Every structure is written in structure tokens, then in C-alpha cells.
Amino acid sequence: MRQNSDNKINYFHIFWILLSFAYLIFQFLEATSISPRLLELLDGGRIISDGGLPYLDFWTMISPGIFYLISILNHDLLLIKLVSGLNIILISVCIYYLSHKIINSEYAIYPSVLSVILISKASPWGSAWLISLLFILISAIFIFKYLENNSEIKYVIYSGLMIGIASLFRHEMAGFIFGAFFQAIFFMSLTHPNVELFSKSKRIIYGLKNALMLALGLIPLLPFAIYLIVKIPINILWDSLFISPFIIFREHGNIPFPSLLSGEIFELWFAIIFYSILIAIILLVYFIVKNVKNKSLELNGIKFWQLLMVFNICLNLFNIPMIASDYWHFLPVLVCGNIILFLFISKILNNKIQYFFRTFAILLLLSTVLLPANNKVKIDNYIEYNKIN
After folding, report:
1. Side-chain half-sphere of 350: how many Cα atoms within 13 Å?
2. Please, are residues 122 and 24 in contact by the beta-carbon 8 Å criterion?
3. I need a surface site. Which of 153, 225, 250, 355 has the fewest CB within 10 A?
4. Residue in 176, 172, 140 with CA at minimum distance from that of residue 159
5. CB neighbour burial string for 48-69, b if at least 16 within 10 angstroms, e if fewer
């Protein structure tokens, strides 16, 4: 009988996986024209193909990697959408891997499925943050590997390399995560069994040495950075990559947080999803402290640091919607934060009410699939690509 139960659970998971991919394909086929956001990227990629340079020959706040990628793809909208679709699938795989490490395996599939649907709803074709988020998640996976493999330093270097690639597409996202991972590796190293007999100063040196290995992973990207610095005046780079996104856009692009009192169905749904995940992120600190006190979670153990890593990712990605708190800018937090949301759901629901959980999962996932996006997410006045190409 147990085997039959397991088979039912597997079929249930397969259903949600197929539904999420069907939704992704539907959004892929529906997007027959381009938005102003993607139009800007296509124009930049076209200038790059003609020998131009970002920031010098056209203004943008976005990291240069996406323009060079679009140029490599020859501005082909179908190829751009295919790359984005593959990107979404790989993000869902990474979310599943991270979820599986900290959530009961029965529930780990839900954050992965929900991430596909949440991202697809925003029609993210050609999005730079999408690529950056993928490499940030891969970077986190390498840190998990570092924890599980007796602190093998090669995983820290690999993690740094992934953050470096992420910075080519969204430098601010990668910058926040680099700082978070640097601190995490430093404090992980201070509590490692290898340094138990070290003096305080030697422990600090050991921690800094390990943390600095994260920066070592950035070295392969230096030639590209030097190329831009040589070709483009520093003041233009500084204004485009730092002043504009962090000061000017923060002042003029401010969007209020979603309201639970909104009369629009989409805004209400977005508010419920957002505040549920936000509360879960905040409660994770209480969850960690409580479980350390009652000895169900080992202080400085692998699971302890894995939970803190997921918390740190969410906390630092929250810097993005602090500039503009619409659905588009909240997506990285929602995608990563739903791991924590389902962690709590899996903890508070026992076997006696597992069917209630499945009902909740069905309502949550189906509402995400069926609810149409509003104009803030999916711009209606598209410009036909063929007319401008």
C-alpha cells in the first residue's frame, strides 16, 4: 500500500511539472510581438553588432552582457525567446535542488513549479535579470557543495565565477549577492572543525583567505571589464552603472508596495503572494533560532548554513524592489522566497492534513496560472518586431 501512495505522489508531482511547462509554452507562443523593454535591448544589441559600445553610443543602466548576447543571437526574436525559455527551465531546476536540501522531498517540487509560472506570467523574454538570477542560483549551489564536501575551496572559486558571470547581466544583483556570500563564507570558516585549535587571529586570517577565494573567481572576467574601461570614459560608466540606477532611478522610479486593499484582482493576488513570502522570510530567523535552541538544528551545521544562505539571498535580492516595487522587480525575491514559504508549509502540516496542503497547493498554483497579468506586467501596446527590424 505504501508503494501505491508513493506512486500517487509521483503522479501528482508530474502533473504540476507538466502544467508549469505547458504554461511556459503557452506564454512563449502567445508572445508574438515585443514590448518596449525588449525593444530597448534589441536596439542596443543592433548597435553593438554595428561596432558601437554600450553607454558611449547609447544610454542604458543595464549591465552590458545582455546587449552582447542579443548581438551574438543576431537579434533573432525566436532565438532570444528560446534562450529565455531554457533559462526559466534551468532556474526551476536550481530552485528544486536548493529546495530539496532544506525541505522534505515531498514538498520540494512546489517552489520549482511555482517559479516557472511566476516568471512566465511576466513575459520575461530577453530579460537580463533572468540570466543573472540563474547564475546566482548556480553560485549558491556551489556554496552548498562547499558545505557538503568538507569546505573544498574549489567550490568557492566556482561560486565566485558564477557571480562574475551574473554581474555581466545585472551588476547590482550580483554585487549584493557577492557581499552576502563573502560574509557567509568568512563566518562558515570561523566555525569549521579545522580551526578549533587556532588562535582568534589565525581564525580570522583563515576566514578571510577562504572568503577572498570568492573574488578569485572573478579574475577571468577582468579582460572584459578592462576593455570597457579603456574604451569608455570612467565618468560615463560611473553615471550609467551606479548613479542612474541607485540614485536617479530610486528617486523617480519609486513604486509603492502592493496593497491588500486594492480593488484590482491581480494587485490583490500579487499582494497576497508577496506578503506571504515576505512573512515567511522574516519568520525564518525565528525558525532557525528556535530549532537551534531545542537541538533539532545543529548550530553551524550544514543545514543551519544552508538555511541562512537562502535567507541571505532573499534579503539581498530585496534591494531590487526597494528601488521599484512592482511585480517585475519583485520576481527574483518571489522566486527564491517561495522556497522558504513552502518550507514553513511543509513544517506546519502533518500527515493527517496532507490533503489540505494539496488543496492549498492547487489553489495557489492554479490561481497563478489562470489569473491574467495586468498592464504593469504585460504591456499591451506592443510594437510589431517585423516593422522595425
Report:
1. 1
2. no
3. 355
4. 140
5. beeeebbbeeeebbbbbbbbbb
